[in-house]
Amino acid sequence: MRVIWANIEDVWREAAARWTLITYFILSTIFIAVFASAVNLDIVDGALAGAKLFGQDVVMNGNMPGIDRVVAIAELIFSLIIYAFSVLLAVFATAHLVPRMQEKGTVDLYLSRPVSRPLLLLSRYVAGMLLAASNVIYLILSIWVIVAWKTHIFNVRFRLAGVIMLFVIAVLLAFAFLIGTITSSTGVSIMSTYALCLLSLFLFVAHGRLDAVLSHEWLVAFVNGMYWVVPKAWELGGSVAAYVTGPLSHMKIPAPGLSAFVSTGIFGLVCLSLAIWRFQKKEF
Fold first, then answer.
1. Could you tell me the end-to-end alpha-carbon distance of the chain, in angstroms, rounded to an integer?
2. Which of 46, 67, 95, 126 has the fewest CB atoms within 10 Å, measured from its CB?
3. Count of alpha carbons within 13 Å of 266, Cβ hemisphere only?
């Protein structure tokens, strides 16, 4: 256990030495500062007297909406931005973990330690998830505190939405690890992971809508089949929005079913298992 913790500590030291950790939190702090200055609410005796979002007055049908609705809109917008922002940064900050470890000299040092290859790779994976989780928690809690401070409304659902973000990051990181063990290239790992997200978007849009476009039934079946194989990154982004808004009757946002979570989780487990298998068989 001590050796595994040492490997995790190495990842954090490497992230700090390469300015990855510092840049990670500087960008997040800038995002939080933009949010703090973008949302201005005027609360008088517990009621909303005025609201501005990015300098624009929030007015609906000539009347100021209730404070609960303004808070829900603000948290909805920024939860989606945080979702995309945290996934983007997480891939950039962690995609190098496997290629860096497999460099000549570095891998010899790691393999000389009394730890099996599967545990070595898993410790790097856990370290990457801890790095990504620290940033997601920092973003979520900071914005939640700002909203609560300005409105005195404590929406616990906004904080717990970070769990869904971490779930998606965990799946994408597993895929990046698989590509990293195969190619030993940080650039290829990053590009492949973002290409997977774009493929997820295409399949999300095309699923169930290609019958009239494609002339061959096997192509329709292939595309629909790929939809269930590829992680549902975009649908789960919608689940973040649906979870944050909660039971508000005026903001009913459709959320994906349990199958989207299950199929995405299976994809991540398969990718991580294949990465471990590939790392075990690889000759250095």
1. 25
2. 46
3. 9
Residue 4, phi then psi, degrees to nearest 5 = -65, -45
Separation of alpha carbons 195 and 167, rounded Å? 19
Query: What backbone phi and psi angles, to 5 degrees, belong to 125?
Result: -65, -45
Q: pTM score, two decimals? A: 0.84
Close Cβ partners of 254 (under 8 Å, ≥ 6 residues apart): 238, 242
Run means of pLDDT, 10 residues per run, the chain, 284 residues: 75 77 84 74 49 52 55 77 87 88 84 85 92 90 82 77 91 95 93 92 75 65 82 85 66 70 94 95 80
Instruction: Specify the amino acid at residue 148.
Output: A
Q: How far apart are CA 219 and CA 282, in angstroms?
A: 35
Show the tokens assigned to 248: 């508000």
